[in-house]
Amino acid sequence: MKTAVVVYPGSNCDRDMAVALEAVAGRPPEMVWHKNTELPEGLDLVALPGGFSFGDYLRCGAIAARAPIMSSVRRYAEAGGRILGVCNGFQILIEAGLLPGILMRNAGLRYLCHPVPLTVTATSPFTEGYAPGAEITLPIAHHDGNYVADKELVRRLEGDGRIAFRYRENPNGSTADIAGVLSENRRVLGLMPHPERAADPALGATDGRALFESLA
To answer: pTM for the whole thing?
Structure first.
């Protein structure tokens, strides 16, 4: 499996993502700087990692979504490529228009950093390694992870089976306990919890590994 991790100024989970991807792909990912204009050829996955791209100025992910590399990322998505956006990566995908909804400040207006229990609620290329309805635990680390959607969008996401993960104990006020959503073709996933931080026994948690194994 050939993968790439897009790196922005302020990314701080790019190495974590690279380690998790290499563990299942058997080869290190290409690390793509945000000022590049083209993704490498022949990719099976593009990952947008967590962090604080451009210092979270304006809105989280707003500047990164307009970086030179994002034109190539959009073309890759339109061609059916698989894209994984975690935390800040999820924010970037929303700002780029590749996923619906809005991510706002946590309901308690505090940065949150702790494990959270989740339910896997959709079948997709990212979740095939989990049993339907599986209960897992992944860490969160965000200040702006409150997923906001109106009733019509929630109804559409539920009807299409595009809510990939739900919080079992909602930490941030997200609408309908949504922790991660899929694109219409189910090949783009954005989620606030960090599977790459729970993908190795050395980290004390392995519930995230099945997501990467699903992709491989």
So the answer is: 0.96
